[in-house]
Amino acid sequence: MTPQSSQHGSPLPELPEPDPQNGAAVKAADRAHVFHSWSAQDLIDPLAVAGAQGSYFWDYEGNRFLDFSSGLVFTNIGYQHPKVVAAIQEQAGRLATFAPAFAVEARSEAARLIAERTPGDLDKIFFTNGGAEAVENAVRMARVHTGRTKVLSAYRSYHGSTAAAINLTGDPRRWASDSGSAGVVHFWAPFLYRSPFYAENEAQECERALAHLESTLAYEGPQTIAAIILETIPGTAGIMTPPPGYLQGVRELCDRYGIVFILDEVMAGFGRAGTWFAADHYDVVPDLMTFAKGVNSGYVPLGGVAISGKIAETFAERPYPGGLTYSGHPLACAAAVATLKVMDEEGVVENAARLGTEVVEPELRRLAERHPSVGEVRGVGMFWALELVKDRETREPLVPYNATGEANAPMAAFGAAAKKRGLWPFINMNRTHVVPPCTVTEEELKEGFAALDEALSVADEHTV
User: Fold this and answer.
1) Is the pTM of this model over 0.90?
2) How far apart are CA 100 and CA 127, in angstroms?
């Protein structure tokens, strides 16, 4: 793929001359010394990346890829936005770092701009270095605020890999670290396509999921439960948009039993869902909201918790028992300030909403009509998933749950086919997610869908 311009309004640079020797050195150092997350170290082959801009990145061999993964769904404004890069450089020259106990302009302004965009009275911002730390601190706030210990979370979820966050996570990545004593109880959240409630429509799914949650509360003892945490729209677990009324129903249950309602917007926030926060789609205000990723497109690590007045009041004269050396790091906060300004100036949220409706959804539905491997299309904004299946009638997944090795061969073949055609996909289990930067152009999307069309033909070979 050789696009003529980037979404930042300037021509994409010509790819540098291939430099396989340097690429080999980068790869060799990586393989010798870098320990990669979520990986069997001897079974991976990381791509050596030479550069990136906008929606694209390239390797040392001269291959360019359209990034339909946005890194790990965090480059909401694309790679190397010049205004954000300049803001980081300017902040580094002025005040590269400072301790969190002081009032620093970049930190104060980042908090103000975030609070302007959060729903309801989530006006206090506790900064962390990323999403998992945000979840850890939100849970701690809820436990201290209520004096209770248990936290409920959904099976189809991902909340991070630190101690509490990994136990809250529902997907199989928690299994190796699940202590069984962390005060976490899992429940089924709604997912009509694979409904655990035998629902036939969204209204039934909503009603039955709420009844299941309420019965879980009853059997666990609501007086023991500090919080319910949900991804507003689950991300890595499958981009299942909740049915109308579900989140409001959870809010009502929390209010009835004095339980803190936490929404995890680490992946869905800051334009990804075509709104500033996914919660804006559902007219719901949590007590705590976690964020990271899109707040500054991952240019410098940053996350946080947006805190309601009710929770903040708990710590008005009582010290909050938590803190981080780099909380609200000036470089990260300067990147956030610049990112939020860019998103306003360039209409990034509006772009994600418009192209999601006008281009992504109709194009994905056309692909679904063409390819028997596509069981369902779902999503919103720049946050979409294709559920790949062996059989549309039975809805049998293209690969088994948590498949590895030979059992995962069909998805591996699909991914290899996409990359061969210049598209870098986001793949999890039997799904491919369509999560390009929120600054993506219509032309870039159509290039990506042409490559996805060809790659899905490989997945079709594994259907019945």
Assistant:
1) yes
2) 9
